[in-house]
């Protein structure tokens, strides 16, 4: 096999591996579970993907999973439409949710990253 063909085959293999890897990263979800510490409305109006503006609700959750450092981790879960906030839980409720991709470094989960949010005690599933 000539050197050029080997080189092209090698490059094609690398490109396909990168393409497959990138496709799988976006579909990965990580499960989390914790207790709600605080529910608050974020001041101002926030732009939605569908167009227009809506209020934003922030739910602070103390995760029950152990971190690498052993310290508790608080995550802020953001929801559009604060009118539905009561059905998303109150302080003291236990919740579970999935995050698409890795948990952001600033510990803030935005609506487009959030899937399968459930209030396990004290409320209704969303």
Characterise this structure.
With 126 residues, this protein is α+β, with helices and mostly antiparallel strands. It has one domain (30-119): OB fold (Dihydrolipoamide Acetyltransferase, E2P) (Beta Barrel). Helices cover 20% and strands 41% of the residues. The chain has one helix and six strands, in the order αββββββ. The protein has a six-stranded mixed sheet, with no helix packed on it. A hairpin with a 5-residue loop joins strand 1 and strand 2.
Indicate the topology:
Blueprint: H1 3-27, E1 29-47, E2 53-63, E3 74-80, E4 94-100, E5 108-109, E6 114-119
Parallel strand pairs: 3-5
Antiparallel strand pairs: 1-2, 1-4, 2-3, 4-6
Concise summary:
With 126 residues, the protein is an alpha+beta fold.
Strand order of the largest sheet: 5-3-2-1-4-6
Largest sheet: 6 strands, mixed
Q: Strand-and-helix sequence, N→C?
A: HEEEEEE
Low-confidence stretches: none
Rg: 20 Å
Q: What's the β-strand tally?
A: 6
CATH superfamily: Nucleic acid-binding proteins
Overall pLDDT level: 77
List keywords for this structure.
1 helix, extended, alpha+beta, 6-stranded mixed sheet, 126 residues, OB fold (Dihydrolipoamide Acetyltransferase, E2P)
């Amino acid at each position: 096999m000539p050197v050029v063909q080997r080189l092209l085959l090698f490059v094609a293999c690398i490109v396909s591996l990168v393409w497959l890897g990138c496709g799988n990263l976006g579909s990965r979800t990580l499960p989390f579970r914790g207790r709600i510490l605080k529910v608050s409305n974020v001041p101002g109006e926030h732009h939605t993907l569908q167009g227009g503006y809506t209020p934003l609700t922030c739910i602070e959750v103390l995760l029950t999973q152990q971190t690498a450092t052993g310290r508790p981790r608080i995550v802020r879960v953001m929801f559009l439409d604060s009118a539905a906030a009561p059905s998303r839980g109150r302080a003291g409720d236990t919740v579970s949710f999935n995050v698409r991709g890795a948990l952001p470094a600033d510990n803030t989960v935005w609506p487009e990253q959030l899937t399968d949010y459930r209030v396990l005690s004290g409320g209704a599933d969303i």
